[in-house]
Design goal:
Order of helices and strands: HHHEHEEEHEHEHHEHE
Strand order of the largest sheet: 3-2-1-4-5-8-6-7
Largest sheet: 8 strands, mixed
Mean pLDDT: 76
């Protein structure tokens, strides 16, 4: 079956599957644990409800105006809640923080979004409302290494991904790669499971200019060990594994790199901002930087703060010190299509995906 026919088949199957789900709810009622329609609507209408509206997909144009707006759920209001920090500044409606919003800003900018996309998100931070909306918009699954800190549909080790070749269109991998012992194995496996032309949006914390292991045992908030502190040299490793990688950033960060100076007078102690800027200025890294949001847009969607910096490439970012943000968007695999087993990862969960849609 040609690529165009596969896409058409997935689109038709997606529409049919959703219609069947609607009919099933009307006939048999909501699945166990799911709130009935009236209750779900009440929750969705409540202030601070953690529920992106499934009827507003991410390919919907952003609303007009110059006030704060969330790229994840399209909430608009006076300000994001919490302090002006990439981890702490949250959308009052869906709970997305600065790095979540930047990830989705890059997703909408870099990927031609449509309902037939096969998407896996590794260890997503947001909860059931977000995941339900994503599953409405795409053929969407979540994964986690041990299903402990983050619940997922699939238990996957990025070093040995138990999925067929070329079965994914988009992999969202935010703040996960630093917890994987063998980076090169993980990148090779990600390349294998992405379809030609597929996209990896990768975020990692960038605490210094170059990649190195922690000098002492380090754990993140969910007690997950950190094996690597990445720097901007991760871009070249992505390219070594066959990705076309772009280091996406805000105009604020690109301007800081180009200026040759450090515009931030203070920053969080975990981040070596002078070394980060130095790393972005050497080895032709500066030429990899691609501003994806000007200062006005970055401020509007809440991806600029005075106390945090994020970085990424071809996939996505990571940095928390005092600036804006950067992700790695690796896209357009240059290899040809590889053979894969009959069926697909959809058949692993036939109750929620039409069999053969991913074949």
């Amino acid at each position: 079956m040609t690529t165009d026919l596969r896409r058409i088949a997935r689109t038709v199957a997606a529409s049919s599957y959703r219609k069947a789900g609607e009919v099933g709810r009307r006939v048999f009622g909501a699945p166990a644990g799911e709130a009935p329609d009236a209750a779900r609507q009440a929750v969705a209408a409540a202030p601070g409800a953690l529920l992106p509206d499934p009827s507003t997909p991410p390919w919907t144009p952003m609303p007009d105006g110059d006030g704060p707006v969330c790229p994840v759920c399209r909430w608009q209001g006076e300000s994001f809640s919490g302090s002006a920090h990439v981890e702490l500044s949250q959308c009052p409606a869906c709970g997305a923080n600065g790095r979540d919003r930047f990830l989705h800003w890059c997703l909408a900018d870099r990927v031609a979004l449509h309902p037939a996309l096969r998407v896996i998100e590794c260890s997503p931070r947001l909860g059931e409302g977000y995941r339900s909306a994503m599953a409405t918009w795409f053929f969407y699954r979540t994964s986690d290494y041990d299903l402990s800190a983050h619940r997922g549909n699939l238990q996957l080790d990025l070093q040995n991904i138990d999925l067929p070749d070329a079965c994914l269109d988009v992999l969202l991998c935010a703040h996960v790669l630093e917890h994987v012992p063998d980076t090169d194995k993980a990148l090779a496996e990600i390349r294998r499971v992405l379809a030609p032309g597929g996209h990896l949006l990768l975020q990692v914390p960038v605490l210094q200019g170059r990649t190195a292991p922690p000098t002492e045992p380090e754990f993140h908030g969910d007690n997950t060990p950190v094996f690597w502190r990445f720097g901007f040299d991760l871009t070249s490793r992505l390219r070594h594994h066959g990705f076309t990688a772009d280091l996406l950033c805000t105009a604020e960060f690109a301007d800081a790199v180009a200026s040759g100076s450090n515009p931030w007078s203070t920053w969080a102690g975990a981040f070596d901002v002078p070394d980060i800027l130095d790393g972005a200025r050497r080895d032709a890294v500066a030429s990899d930087l691609e501003p994806i949001a000007d200062r006005t847009t970055a401020a509007r969607v809440g991806i600029v703060s005075r106390s945090s910096l994020n970085c990424g490439s071809g996939a996505r970012w990571a940095m928390a010190a005092r600036m804006a943000s950067v992700p790695w968007v690796s896209t357009r695999l240059t290899r040809g299509c590889r053979s894969r087993p009959a069926g697909s990862w959809a058949s692993m969960n036939a109750t929620s995906s039409p069999l053969g849609v991913f074949a």
